């Protein structure tokens, strides 16, 4: 009885011990020497076709340059600062889709939207301009070069411009193009527009990070390793391992539009009968790294100008005496990079009467980095009465400010779904609209929508202020507190699908190789054996040691 | 691979204790019981020490060397000596010679110290992906600590158990024991105040342990001679 109770107790003790051991073994070990914030290259689908970097997991050894002899590039992360990146390498690895374990591009600190340094030293500006060019080229490569021109044609309905060779194939149409898009591109068009392309995807993760002391130290370490000629593999040399903990991507598309309304005053009655002027800015961005794509110039400047104008006019309209003869409608729209889809949705959802009461709309786009020349883009002929009125009022203010404003007319092709300017969405619904921008020509799809270089650093406050003055004073010449502001949510139509997990933490580990541990084991074994021999000799004498070594051999003999 | 590194570090940390036990006559006389008793005494001492440290010491705000705090710490460190005294003199040991008793007590003491202070960090740290020299250095430190503890136990056995010592050697024995007992404070002083890096401190500890071991060995054999 007592024995069995004792056995049971022992058993329970063992189970508790086993449980404790399991708990201890499950402790998650993720303490790294350095943890860096990294921003992932965009991943998106265009009409169901995958683009961008399709992978996000990263757990490889690191190299500072892809040209280290004997390195297995498909299992290494190449860490390169954009400052001294080799463009031919990037081109090779992006457009020809060479295999790579991963790519980590280091951007200068100035491009960090979160950094607070906005002091510019004189001699730095030249370098920054160079940098900006380089970043633009890089982004071009990372996003735009990956969309084959053919595909753009198919999606946006242009044909014939590039002289397509269309070959009937079994399952669909094969189109092949010459070097116009940087290489021969083949797209197979199956039934129902199911386009399969092997071009735009990157089968390795691409991340961006900002240069700082931590990462510079790591880079120096890696460079030292590379210089010694220890290629980073699992079996030799001390090397650095990078690991990204990441969650799975999921669809994430939402359009949020914000509307503000300042009613004007009329001596004899209803504010609803007054004409309306709309001021609209789009805030969505599209860039190589979605988490870094702030679009300070392309969209941010417009948004800031809109908010400032609304502030000025709400003060003006709060006093009934200074209230204007116009209603003011402020709209912050999204979906700008995707043919101004959000603007379209927002306009559709507006009350029919409100939409018809709009005399004209002024869209603000890219007004943060100009010196003396601004453009008004219109899609109706300049002879239109409202456009004349806007242009005249703006240019008269511009004259006072000492800047010039030009008028650009671009007709809309209704059959082409591409919408280059926000005002075109208004024009499609027969609302007169203009876009105020520093750009003289319409940007292409996904161009100038808030890339990497489009950061606060390159935005000129005075330019934004001048723009605000220009618009506000021209409106005042025609001449609320916001009583109404509402938020509206829509779903992005069309061909785009986006993924989340745009930000991650990169942990960099200094790892030792198996060889090192083997050598360590050997050293330890010899140390312990020496210690043993020493202790035996000093405490029992040499004879004992010799006996100890002889005894087993004698045993073997007797056996 | 990281498990391998953990095993290596564990061998370095705990291997010498096992080797010491099996290589010296301790294993022949079956002194394991004494070692275990010493380890239990160590646990009790550590508990008392912890309570004292928690009661009397402030949480250090900076990494600097505060002489007053360090003095208190050294005083609390002498609780160790009291524990050793208890283990050497008050515990009933099976009839083993004094020669083996202090070794067994020192060994059990040092092993308990290593397990208590080094096993958990080793388990958590050495299995991580990150490689540092820290755990190898920690293993070396454990070796030095073993030598210090055995030397201190030897000094204690000379002080408290041996009656007919040569009078001239008594101050030397006490000085030596004092140095050995204040060793943690000395290393802490080197690390905090002089700003030595850990490899340098560990090197110093190893060197000091060898020197102290040699001195205490000589003292021990010098005291043994007249009795022979």
Automatic annotation (TrEMBL), chain A:
Annotated source species: Kingdonia uniflora
GO terms (BP aspect): regulation of signal transduction
GO cellular component: endoplasmic reticulum membrane
Signal peptide: 1-32
Official protein name in the record: Nicalin
Keywords: Endoplasmic reticulum, Glycoprotein, Membrane, Signal, Transmembrane, Transmembrane helix
InterPro entries per the UniProt record, alphabetical: Nicalin
Localization of this protein: Endoplasmic reticulum membrane
Membrane-topology annotation of the record: Single-pass membrane protein
Similarity field: Belongs to the nicastrin family.
A Pfam family of this chain: Nicastrin
PANTHER family: NICALIN (PTHR31826)
Membrane spanning residue stretches: 518-542
TrEMBL record, chain B:
Signal peptide limits: none
Entry's localization field: Cell membrane; Endoplasmic reticulum membrane
InterPro entries from the UniProt entry: TMEM147
Keywords: Cell membrane, Endoplasmic reticulum, Membrane, Transmembrane, Transmembrane helix
Domain of life: Eukaryota
Protein name: BOS complex subunit TMEM147
Membrane topology: Multi-pass membrane protein
GO cellular component: endoplasmic reticulum membrane; plasma membrane
Entry's family note: Belongs to the TMEM147 family.
Chaperone as UniProt keyword: no
Chief place of localization: membrane
């Amino acid at each position: 009885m007592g024995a069995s109770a004792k056995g049971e107790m022992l058993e329970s003790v063992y189970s508790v011990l086993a449980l404790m051991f399991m708990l201890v073994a499950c402790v998650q070990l993720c303490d790294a020497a350095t943890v860096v914030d990294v921003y992932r290259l965009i991943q998106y689908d265009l009409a169901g076709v995958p683009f961008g970097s399709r992978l996000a997991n990263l757990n490889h050894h690191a190299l500072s340059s892809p040209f280290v002899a004997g390195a297995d590039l498909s299992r290494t992360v190449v860490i390169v600062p954009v400052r001294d990146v080799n463009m031919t390498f990037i081109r090779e690895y992006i457009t020809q889709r060479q295999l790579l374990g991963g790519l980590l591009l280091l951007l200068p600190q100035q491009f960090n939207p979160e950094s607070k340094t906005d002091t510019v030293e004189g001699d730095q500006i030249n370098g920054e301009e160079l940098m900006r060019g380089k970043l633009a080229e890089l982004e071009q490569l990372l996003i735009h070069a990956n969309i084959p021109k053919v595909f753009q044609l198919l999606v946006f309905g242009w044909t014939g411009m590039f002289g397509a060779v269309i070959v009937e194939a079994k399952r669909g149409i094969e189109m092949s193009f010459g070097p116009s898009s940087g290489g021969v591109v083949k797209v197979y068009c199956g039934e129902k527009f199911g386009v399969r392309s092997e071009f735009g995807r990157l089968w390795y993760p691409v991340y961006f990070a900002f240069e700082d002391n931590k990462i510079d130290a790591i880079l120096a370490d890696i460079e030292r390793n590379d210089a010694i000629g220890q290629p980073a593999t699992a079996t030799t040399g001390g090397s650095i391992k990078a690991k990204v903990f990441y969650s799975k991507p999921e669809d994430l598309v939402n359009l949020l539009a914000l509307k503000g309304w300042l009613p004007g005053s009329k001596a004899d009655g209803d504010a609803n009968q007054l004409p309306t002027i709309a001021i609209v800015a789009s805030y969505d961005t599209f860039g190589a790294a979605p988490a870094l794509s702030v679009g300070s110039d392309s969209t941010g400047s417009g948004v800031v100008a809109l908010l400032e104008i609304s502030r000025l006019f709400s003060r003006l309209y709060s006093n009934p005496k200074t209230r204007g003869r116009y209603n003011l409608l402020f709209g912050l729209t999204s979906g700008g990079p995707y043919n101004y889809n959000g603007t379209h949705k927002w306009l559709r959802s507006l009350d029919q009467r409100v939409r018809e009461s709009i005399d004209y709309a002024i869209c603000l786009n890219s007004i943060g980095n100009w010196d003396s020349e601004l453009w008004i883009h219109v899609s109706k002929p300049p002879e239109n009465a409202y456009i004349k009125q806007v242009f005249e009022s703006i240019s008269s203010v511009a004259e006072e400010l000492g800047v010039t404003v030009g008028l650009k007319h671009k007709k809309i092709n209704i059959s082409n779904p591409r919408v280059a300017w926000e005002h075109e969405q208004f024009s499609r619904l027969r609302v007169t609209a203009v876009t105020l921008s520093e750009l003289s020509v319409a940007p292409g799809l996904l161009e100038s929508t808030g890339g990497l270089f489009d950061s606060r650093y390159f935005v000129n406050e005075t330019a934004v202020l001048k723009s605000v003055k220009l618009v506000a004073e021209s409106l005042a010449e025609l001449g609320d507190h916001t009583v109404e502001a509402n938020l509206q949510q829509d779903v992005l139509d069309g061909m785009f699908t986006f993924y989340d997990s745009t930000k991650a933490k990169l942990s960099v580990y200094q790892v030792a190789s198996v060889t090192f541990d083997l050598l360590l084991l050997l050293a330890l074994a010899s140390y312990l054996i020496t210690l043993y021999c020493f202790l035996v000799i000093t405490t029992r004498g040499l004879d004992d040691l010799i006996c100890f070594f002889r005894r087993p051999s004698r045993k073997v003999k007797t056996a | 691979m990281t498990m391998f590194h953990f095993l290596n570090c564990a061998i370095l940390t705990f291997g010498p204790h096992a080797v010491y036990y099996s290589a010296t006559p301790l294993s022949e006389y079956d002194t394991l019981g004494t070692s275990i008793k010493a380890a239990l005494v160590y646990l009790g001492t550590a508990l008392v020490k912890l309570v004292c440290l928690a009661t009397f010491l402030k949480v250090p705000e900076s990494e600097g060397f505060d002489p007053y705090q360090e003095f208190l710490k050294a005083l609390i460190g002498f609780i160790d000596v009291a524990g050793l005294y208890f283990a050497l003199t008050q515990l009933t040991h099976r009839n083993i010679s004094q020669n083996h008793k202090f070794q067994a007590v020192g060994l059990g003491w040092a092993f308990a110290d290593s397990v208590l202070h080094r096993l958990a960090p080793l388990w958590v740290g050495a299995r991580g992906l990150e490689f540092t020299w820290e755990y190898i250095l920690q293993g070396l430190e454990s070796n030095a600590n073993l030598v210090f503890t055995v030397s201190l136990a030897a000094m204690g056995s000379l002080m408290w158990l041996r009656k007919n010592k040569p009078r001239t050697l008594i101050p030397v024995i006490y000085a030596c024991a004092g140095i050995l007992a204040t060793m943690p404070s000395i290393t802490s002083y080197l690390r905090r105040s002089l700003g030595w890096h850990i490899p340098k401190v560990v090197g110093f500890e190893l060197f000091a342990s060898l020197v102290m071991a040699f001195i205490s060995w000589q003292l021990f054999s010098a005291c043994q001679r007249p009795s022979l």
